[in-house]
Specification:
The chain contains 5 helices and 10 strands. By secondary structure, it is of the alpha+beta class. The N terminus is likely disordered.
Length: about 170
């Protein structure tokens, strides 16, 4: 049986940027030098890009009633697990095992993007994203972010917007 060929990425692209390009979505790539000693990937991104932390969103993977679910919340806040469970019709949520999140999404921690994941997961974007013309999310590796309209992110990930972040 012949092996299935791997999907080709555009030169220098990540699965996230390839997905955005293929969809014809307007986006801007922001690159910065990642400092492994920085305490927070998201706060580092906001500082490096000179963008308010309420416009930079982190991608978290949680287990909701045994099903992996993606939450996209501002880096300045935290994920409300009860609200996430409610947003997808579940009862209980907990953070997913990091190794399982990496295997399932195809990305490494600190570089998990809601776009171009290996396996499409249910996705919830914090409702605060709608207050901004554009937001930034990981482009699929540490030190690389994409800026796009929250509505475009929601459309590409089949996400729901719900208040799942808290300060």
């Amino acid at each position: 049986m012949a092996k299935k060929p791997k999907k080709q990425q555009q030169s220098g692209g990540t699965p996230a940027t390839v997905a955005l390009t293929a969809a014809g979505t307007a986006f801007t790539v922001h690159s910065y030098e990642h400092d492994p000693a920085h305490a927070s990937y998201g706060e580092e991104a906001a500082e490096a890009m000179g963008v308010s932390p309420d416009r930079v969103f982190k991608t978290l993977v949680a287990d909701v009633d045994g099903r992996l679910t993606v939450a996209v919340v501002p880096v300045a806040g935290q994920l409300d697990l009860k609200a996430l469970a409610a947003a997808v019709g579940g009862k209980r949520a907990a953070m997913a095992d990091p190794a399982l999140a990496e295997r399932t999404t195809g990305y490494v921690r600190g570089g998990i993007s809601p776009l171009g994941q290996r396996k499409k997961l249910p996705t919830v974007i914090d409702a605060s994203a709608a207050r901004h013309a554009t937001i930034c999310v990981s482009a699929g590796r540490r030190g690389l972010e994409v800026e796009l309209a929250a509505a475009d992110l929601a459309a590409l990930t089949d996400a729901v917007l719900a208040p799942v972040g808290r300060a």
